[in-house]
Amino acid sequence: MTSSTASFRVPGTFGCEFCPQSLPTKGSLNRHRNTHIRPYKCIVCQSGFALRSDLRRHESKHGSVNPRFMCKWPKCNFKGSARKDNLLRHMKKMHSKVAATDEEDNCNAASLQDAYDEAIQNRKELDKSLTILKLVQDGNIASLQLLLHKGGDFMETTDTGKTVLHIAAFNGHLKIVKLLLNTIIEHNVKDTAGRSALHDAAKGGHSQIFQELIAAGMSLYDRDNNDEDPMCEVCRNGHRDLAQEILGIQTQLSLSDGSPMGSTSNEGSGITKSTSDEYHDWVKTVGMKKYIKLAIENGHRAIVEIILFQHSDFNQNHLAYALEKAASIGEHQLVVSILQKKDRLSLRVCFRALRLAAMHRDIPIMDTLFEEAIQPKIGAGTGKIWIMLLEAVAIGNDDMVRFLIGKGANPKYQYSGNWVTPLYKASSLGKLTIVTTLLEAGAHVDFLCSRGTALYIATKRGNKEVVALLLEAGANSNASTNYRETVLQAAVKINDKALIDLLIEKGAEVNASDNYRSGTALQEAVKGGNKAIIDLLIERGAEINASGSNYSGTALQEAVKGGDKALIYLLIEKGAEINASGSYSSGTALQEAIKRGDKAIIDLLIEKGAKINASSNDRSGTALQEAIKRGNESIIIQLIQLGADINAPINSESYSGSNPGVAIQEAVKHGNQTIVDMLLLAGADVKVPANINCGTPLQEAVRNGNEYMIEQLIDLGVDINALEYSCYKEYPNPGVAIQEAVKHGNQTIVDMLLLAGADVKVPANKNCGTPLQEAVRDGNEYMIKKLIDLDVDVNAPAVKSWGWSWNGNFNPEIAIREAVKRGNRTIMDMLIRAGAVDPGED
């Protein structure tokens, strides 16, 4: 019987033990076998080759070329060849024509011979250095000693900068290392990667050589260009015994306070207190994580366990890092080992490790982490595991969601009334598979959290597939959303016609009332300006004249705000009420058109019957007042000709600080003399009192410093001493006329007001101090003297302003205290002579 493992090669052939191939002769088998074992090694970079000729070609890259095959032509850049035919081809291609035509070559024969001789000598020198590297590579100490005696250059390096000491240390030739250390060669030379021979000894795992190098003065804390010390090489290559030895040295270093250690292996290391402290800090902050990472990634569990359980600098952060790293690459046994110290691991760390294992669907590690570490920490309660479920949803890991549900996480549980549910979170993120998993596990499809339902947030985020799935699972498309917009309104806001169609098909109420966060669906569609959605909603029965609210005007008012004349016309044709009253968020259609200053829309609305004298409201003044506020003279003229009420009052119940005042107040406030004259000609009442939006016309003119307008108003018989209107607003109204004039330091206007009978004894109010207090704050000595001569009360009390400023009080303090604050000695003396006293701090 033939063996069950016999190959199926043809009889009379020779089978390769490394692969299924069969060869006809033993010689061809040997040549084929070399492609597996690659017996020809480069003495410089250790690369292996199947053929000697391949090795020779490779060696030419390092400069190891047979001089018989080097080009001897002067200044030729040809680097040489390991094969003669390659050299001949080069000569024929590059130099044959030159040699045939250049007569001077006959004179250069001697130079060519010299160049050739020099090349031969260079080759001999190169052969000598390569012979030394070769002898070290092969461990031939006898020949090496002979070359050393004959003066061989032991400082030659490979193309990567490695010395003979590097090569001997890596290949484990202890006797050669000792021989080299007893020569005068530099021990601490580093290769191009910044690695010393100590790194190569650690890489090869040669403990005795490592000790010899340390004893010769090499530093354990030397780090290469990648910031890796010798211990990193040990961890990468899995040399357990050497790892324990280095950890012992590191422990000794950490306990020695930088003083030289008594052991032979460290006396010559050159480690001082400063370098020891620096290395110790590096190990704790950087090195330990590097050791753990390299050991885990290269499958050296034993070394990780040595580091975690024996290293003096091991701490909780290193343990957490090791657990997460082991979980992420599937090192189950290492995870089990690390969990022996689970008391030093937080629930958060264990959860992160569980998440990393779930990313690779490593169920055994997930089970171990949950049963051994997480379950004991969370106990029998449902709150913590529910939070873990919520976090698993947030990172979008369906496998972890299924795992936690399988371990008892209840998707119906809600930790607190203000927390979102896992279904809400998954719907928000558009995680269709997780939404499916949660619904299959019994999650309540219409559960209302503080931010709405799952259907609401899926719609708001535009997650169509999730919306369809939730509706299929029975989600209520008209569920309350705690003062937020309805699901349909949310779909309209993102201009998603497909979602709107789907929701209406599933019973969404087209005319659901507006609310704190939204207008009706049609009003929101008009804001978005999407005519296809507007047509769809109107076709499905949307109420065009639904009233405005705190969040939206009527559909027509919103269309006017948007300035879309075609849409305005469409809504009017569909029956939109042109004169619908204003609301907290909008004026009437005409008032909003005037705010925009769009003459075409204004004319269209007036043509369709818009009321010119619609009263002011929370969001707007009358049409005329708004036109004056914007200084649009042509519209003002048009409105006056159409019978606009010149003296229409403001809305006294409005708390909007942006609404205009009565027409004449607003015109004076903006200083437009043309508009003022137009209004006066049309019968404007200049004696209108101050109100929440403006001061009197005179007060506003004084604040602006408009002397012509002040004189005009005085001539019209305004009340010079009319009271101010104080209210809590960002930009306070002006004070009484004389207060405002002194406050702005305009002596001409002060004189005009005094001549007209202004009362300089007016008390302070929320808008201004007394005239004297304002003059003192302004530092106006002339005005102070004049007011004192008029017998003002120098000790009149101060009044604090409404305090809108971050600096607090806008108003001045009592006169004497204001003078002290300004440091004006002259004014202080004037006040004291007039009887001013400081009543002291309140």
UniProtKB/TrEMBL annotation:
Q: Provide the protein name.
A: C2H2-type domain-containing protein
**Residue stretches making up the C2H2-type domain:** 14-41, 40-67
Q: Which organism is it from?
A: Botryotinia fuckeliana (strain B05.10) (Noble rot fungus)
The GO terms this record gives for MF are: zinc ion binding
Q: Which UniProt keywords apply?
A: ANK repeat, Metal-binding, Repeat, Zinc, Zinc-finger
Q: Which Pfam families does the entry mention?
A: Ank_2, Ank_4
Name the domain of life this protein comes from: Eukaryota
Q: Per the record, which residues fall in region Disordered?
A: 255-274
Q: Which PROSITE patterns match?
A: ANK_REP_REGION, ANK_REPEAT, ZINC_FINGER_C2H2_1, ZINC_FINGER_C2H2_2
- ANK repeat ranges are 160-192, 193-225, 418-450, 450-482, 483-515, 517-549, 551-583, 585-617, 619-651, 693-725
